[in-house]
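Lecture 7, part B: from sequences to assemblies.

Below are the input chains for today's worked example.
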Amino acid sequence: MTRFALTLEFDGGPFMGLQRQDHGPSVQQSVEEAVEAITGEAVRMHAAGRTDTGVHALAMRAHVDIEKDIDAFRLMEGVNAKLRPDPIAVTACEVVPDDWHARFSCVGRAYVYRIANRRAPLTLERGRMWQVAAPLDAAAMHSAAQHLVGCHDFTTFRSAHCQAQSPLKTLDRLDVERAEGTGGSEVRIHAEARSFLHHQVRSMVGCLALVGMGRWSEDDMRQALEACDRQALGLNAPPDGLYFVKARYEGEAP
Amino acid sequence: MTRFALTLEFDGGPFMGLQRQDHGPSVQQSVEEAVEAITGEAVRMHAAGRTDTGVHALAMRAHVDIEKDIDAFRLMEGVNAKLRPDPIAVTACEVVPDDWHARFSCVGRAYVYRIANRRAPLTLERGRMWQVAAPLDAAAMHSAAQHLVGCHDFTTFRSAHCQAQSPLKTLDRLDVERAEGTGGSEVRIHAEARSFLHHQVRSMVGCLALVGMGRWSEDDMRQALEACDRQALGLNAPPDGLYFVKARYEGEAP
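Predicted structure of the full complex, as structure tokens:
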């Protein structure tokens, strides 16, 4: 048995999320079927994160175990060929030790959230960003975001369907910057933590947008966090703008 | 009568190009119908360039003449609402003098061509870039490109369907750079001229890719130009990676 680590890029639009579902297509199902088509083996894929419907990935990490003697390059090329026309690509593939686990060995996860801050509807970036027409104050958003950095009870920013045992998480980074993108004036939010609760990034982004619009103060953000109550959530941002960008493992650069 | 200048952003994928066609959807038809839905007037749109099927625009300029008394902001908002679900957006709209013409007053046009230089199939950038699997030498491409800058007979790089009276054009800029994008390692080509022949940018990019792959030398590029013969063309790049990015008018910054 050989364990292969895969780096996956995908457009989350057509999928009911990364994890296999009974009621619709998933990234996991597509990749498992492509691996089976190449190796003749039914495999189970494990991934660093469980992204939702419509959430994208630039570099999700995952692993599969394969009995057949196949080298990493041929596996990657074959799986990519079988994945067509699904918008999923294996951008890297390598042999890893048997005790390396894409989910349990992962010590850091990074997301980017992209907001198109403009009145005009999206064209090229449709499904790739959240369009917010009201002008956003990115500096105010960044300042309010700093109240969320550190170890907190994130119950307010957690989906009712979250399966994590504890609402306590340590948020290492939540930076907001204004950038120029093809979608026009873009506000980009960078979030990093060892792990996140279900909907945590989208919930934090939704509330930051309220701050950016001037509808919430920095203090409202602090109070929402301290409330530890899902009812205190101001707004949950749509999945379109969310990208899983990095999974970090022991011995890898931060 | 008031003349309005429109700045258009569009995904060229679903259209048979910018110009109105008998046999399929066009950007011109969609915009003209949206303006008519708002004003009740049949209008004709004139644009700075005539992009092909699948070619995108970040900031195409165009104009329409309207009799009805309507302000620029209301026109833009109304047209954007009527354009849904077509992936076209009016990102700016302003009143211009009656003798300002989107096509004939335009003194400079700029395109960007995006190549995804990677083996993995495209996902999020599908239809937005040209995927080239062979490693490209961007420095060699840039060097070869400089042979095309200046005033030349561009017959080799001109479509058989080109309607321009002369094959002589002055190319002001053809820069090749390597950049990091969401599509992985990206090679980006910037082309600027007062005007271009039909397929000129895609034809130049196709030959530059041959240089990047090491299949053409700098001298092959020079000879292709000097041949003044469409048969000397090495390769015509697909439309997916081509973006119209800027139209410049007298009195505007370069």
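Note for the exam: Chain B touches chain A through 26 residues (CB under 8 Å). Keep this in mind when comparing with the next example.
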